[in-house]
Amino acid sequence: GGTLDSLDPMPMQGPELGVQADDIEAPGVQQEPKQEVLENKDVVVQQVHIDGLGRTKEDLLTYEIAEVFRAKNLIDVMRRSHEARQRLLRLGIFRKVEVIIDTARGEHALPNGLDVTFEVTELRRLTGSYNTMVGNNEGSMVLGLKLPNALGRAEKMTFQFSYGTKETSYGLSFFKPQPGHFERNFSINAYKVTGQFPWSSLRETDRGISTEISFPVWKTNQTLKWEGVWRELGCLANTASFAVREESGHSLKSSLSHAMVIDTRNSSILPKKGGLLKIHQELAGFTGGDACFLKEDFEIQLNKKLFWDSVLSASLWGGLLLPLGDEKTSIADRFYLGGPTSIRGFSMYSMGPQSDGDYLGGEAYWAGGLHLYTPLPFRPGRGGFGELFRTHFFLNAGNLCNLNYGEGPQAHLKKLAECLRWSYGLGIVLRLGNIARLELNYCIPMGVQSGDRICDGVQFGAGIRFL
């Protein structure tokens, strides 16, 4: 769904490239009590040491380990030490963290006193990484250089180069969390992205800078962002339609955006329970630039576990793009719909307003999906490899159109409801770690409008965000 979001620079705060979750060893809490310490006996944590610090500033870590001092008994000490260990690893500056709990020593040692020691191994000053990334129906190779803990308080400098099937990008980012509150952080990015969009016969090059602040409020995660982008649009082929040629040229977009996310799912790739609510708004033109619009979009997903390990999942997406002033909206800002990651059974982003076979995107869209995920028939590889696969039955529906803003909301809703495109089918889903998923589906597209490109029968999809 969404816009040409594939043109966003790669998520710099995405899965850590340096340390994969699998590389971090399972938490081992070693106890070496020199005397019998009963589990429910009152204890006092007298000292907490951190051994192995090099460039890390100690004041950053005092916040992360403070809770250990509040422990009242041994079980509590172990639980709080484990939580502190997780918090230290989350900072992304240590390769490993070991916990040792021992009886207190020295002249001020109490008989029921304990000392807790965290033995840490810092990441190297410069780490490099090479990996492959799956975007929405495209693959890319990513090379990264990272300075974890650049200034000693978990700041991160990252340089990333990505070469993909449809886009090439490089970017430089600086990330700084607030000490003691890792969820509150600030980042600044500079990037250049070149993308090809064959469904629109369009080539786009973006050069931009952005600054972003993230912080939690109650159960939500909020992000405020300013972005300044110089966009260059051109034609991919000589056969590009006149409508696309008309959009070619340079433009400047300066926008303020806000995103709110509530995510209670146990996994973002193949969730079994929980829900997601995501609301995003963007205002362009207020801080300068040629592009002038207000853009609103949302995403809702609910998952419910049923009998026999099956999961029912429902999702709804929607968006609206309002031009401000006299300018028309740009092909680069409009929404696109269709393809194996949104309305299956249609070709990638190939529905809605078009001109001579080039899809121009729409100013309003909605899409809904209903899935039933079940384990593979007869459960091969149960408890192991087989758990990465799921069979799913799906029903997708949606619409994408342009609006005449003189008509009023009722006419808009009517326009979005008529000429409904929908599809149904079944297929197999494979989860790739917690990073992406692959789908091989048999699709039956219905409600096809003239000009839509369909993919009747078998369709393959790869991506991170699915309807």
TrEMBL record:
One Pfam family assigned to this protein is: Omp85
Q: Which PANTHER family match?
A: SORTING AND ASSEMBLY MACHINERY COMPONENT 50 HOMOLOG, SORTING AND ASSEMBLY MACHINERY SAMM50 PROTEIN FAMILY MEMBER
Coiled coil spans? none
* Protein name per UniProt: SAMM50 sorting and assembly machinery component
* Subcellular location field: Mitochondrion outer membrane
Q: Which organism is it from?
A: Oryzias sinensis
Q: Provide this UniProt record's keywords sorted from A to Z.
A: Membrane, Mitochondrion, Mitochondrion outer membrane, Transmembrane, Transmembrane beta strand
Q: Which PROSITE patterns match?
A: POTRA
Specify whether Mitochondrion is a keyword of the entry. yes
Q: Which BP terms does GO give this entry?
A: mitochondrial respiratory chain complex assembly; protein insertion into mitochondrial outer membrane
Q: Which GO terms describe its cellular component?
A: mitochondrial outer membrane
Q: Which InterPro entries match?
A: Bac_surfAg_D15, D15-like, POTRA
Q: TM spans, by residue? A: none
> Where in this protein does the record put region Disordered?
1-20
Q: How does it sit in the membrane?
A: Multi-pass membrane protein
Family the entry assigns = Belongs to the SAM50/omp85 family.
What taxonomic classification does the UniProt entry list for its organism? Eukaryota, Metazoa, Chordata, Craniata, Vertebrata
The POTRA domain is annotated at: 43-123
